[in-house]
Write a structure and sequence with these properties.
This protein is α/β, with parallel strands linked by helices. The chain has a 7-stranded mixed sheet with strand order 7-8-9-10-11-12-13, with helices on one face. It has one domain: 4-Layer Sandwich (Metallo-beta-lactamase, Chain A). It is globular and about 60 Å long. Strand 12, helix 13 and strand 13 form a beta-alpha-beta unit. The N terminus and C terminus are likely disordered. Bound molecules: zinc ion (2 copies). One zinc ion (ZN) binds next to loops.
């Protein structure tokens, strides 16, 4: 029953509209509330698709939020989720983040996460975990915004309230290796090396009531199967072959080396056996190309060998109706 309730919550968060009434249904006395929630803040790619923010996922356990990737739009999508009732995702409550790799579509919201999280009330340093290069990226972002930070913390500044949280703009960047990289009373996070165009990691989250694995960008790798191993939720990228066929050859060859096709994901998921498969970070339609019903027909058909429950999220509009 608990798993069913969890899946229902995830499903509701994915719905474009009309979820509020069902989400606010009173619980019966026999049902215990699910402690873990997954919120897809953004499911996009480098393409500036107006319907999808950049990759950003939150795993919320009780009142804690754990962010994976911070693509463009992350903070506004977090606020949208908070307005939908997931208060753990309030921007000022984003204190711990994990980045799968340093491609811009996964990190272009980093300065926003640091600075808007601070001005939204984060009083402690942001803790961020990710591959080599993260510390340098962090130092350069903070240097780029030096004037902003100095102004806001100045006794004469227009936002003296923010200055009361002198540590809120700070960041502790942790460069990681595979293995257990984070642990507190709510979650244990295990990183595993994936295969992408640069150093990259997927993450497994073990919470008191759920196990969740997120792939980041990667070619299919055995370690993802092992990390999941009948986990509750596998969130994995996938690129539909029929759409890729319409792309330039350079993109097709890049995807073949560093991403996962829908057919490959079906094969992987059948071995990993998650109770729920969530597909994200699918390639966007080229401008002018619209194929209504495409994902309902082609992706589901390609994944037809995967017999378990499967979601494919196209739009981040789910959270509030626009992006
Ligand atoms: Zn990406
Ligand atoms: Zn990438």
């Amino acid at each position: 029953m608990q798993l069913r309730r969890f899946l229902l919550f995830l499903f509701l968060m994915l719905l474009p509209n009309g979820a509020n009434t069902q989400e606010s249904k009173p619980q019966t006395s026999k049902e215990r509330p699910t402690r873990t929630k997954v919120v897809l803040l953004g499911t996009g790619t480098p393409v500036p698709d107006p319907d999808r923010s950049g990759p950003a996922t939150v795993i919320a356990v009780d009142d804690r939020a754990y962010l994976i990737d911070f693509g463009p739009g992350v903070v506004r999508r977090a606020e949208a989720a908070a307005l939908r009732g997931v208060t753990a995702v309030e921007p000022g409550n984003l204190k711990v983040a994990f980045v799968t790799h340093l491609h811009s579509d996964h990190t272009a919201g980093y300065s926003d996460l640091i600075l808007t999280g601070w001005t939204s009330g984060r009083k402690v340093a942001l803790e961020v975990y990710g591959p080599r290069g993260l510390q340098s990226m962090t130092e350069h972002i903070l240097q780029a915004y030096r004037v902003d930070i100095e102004t806001r913390t100045s006794p004469d500044g227009p936002m003296r309230d923010v200055g009361r949280f002198p540590d809120g703009w700070k960041v502790n960047a942790h460069e990681i290796k595979a293995g257990v990289i984070y642990k507190d009373e709510k979650v244990t996070v295990t990183a595993f090396a994936t295969k992408h165009a640069m150093e990259s990691y997927g993450y497994r989250f073990d919470t008191p009531d759920r196990s969740i694995v997120i792939s980041g960008d990667t070619n299919p790798v055995e370690v993802t199967i092992n990390a999941c191993n009948s986990c509750d939720v596998l969130i994995h990228e996938a690129q539909p072959l029929e759409l890729l066929a319409k792309m330039p050859e350079s993109i097709q060859s890049f995807v073949a080396k560093y991403h996962t096709t829908t057919e490959q994901l079906a094969e992987l998921a059948n071995k990993a056996k998650p109770k729920l498969l969530v597909i994200y970070h699918t390639v966007s339609f080229p401008r002018g190309l619209r194929l209504p019903g495409f994902f309902r027909s082609k992706v589901v058909r390609m994944l037809s060998t995967f017999r378990r429950k499967c979601f494919r999220k196209r739009s981040a509009r789910d959270i509030r109706g626009n992006s």
